[in-house]
Amino acid sequence: HLPTTGPTASPDAQVAAALRAVPGSTLHKYVLPERPDEAVRILVTKDRQDQRVYVDPRSLAVLSVVSEEQRPMRLIFHLHGELLA
After folding, report:
1. Where are the beta strands (DSSP E) in the chain?
2. 11-84, what's its fold?
3. What is the pLDDT of residues 23-69, one digit of tens each?
């Protein structure tokens, strides 16, 4: 839960923060937060690998960088596909 005080940075500035967190990456997807106290989720791609970057929309602090393949739902997706095979 992030503080909700202060102005929100522009989407361009938020994307720039995410791209700096993963040098050499390009923008893939921008996901708005569902609540005002949540981080913006920005997917960037580098070497055909997606990374999910969580950015504080006010301070532009990068809170976390997670490989899409390491997220729990992607692991479940792969396991489910293997079980069906």
Report:
1. 26-31, 40-46, 49-55, 62-67
2. Nuclear Transport Factor 2; Chain: A, (3.10.450)
3. 999 999 999 999 989 999 999 999 999 999 999 999 999 999 998 77
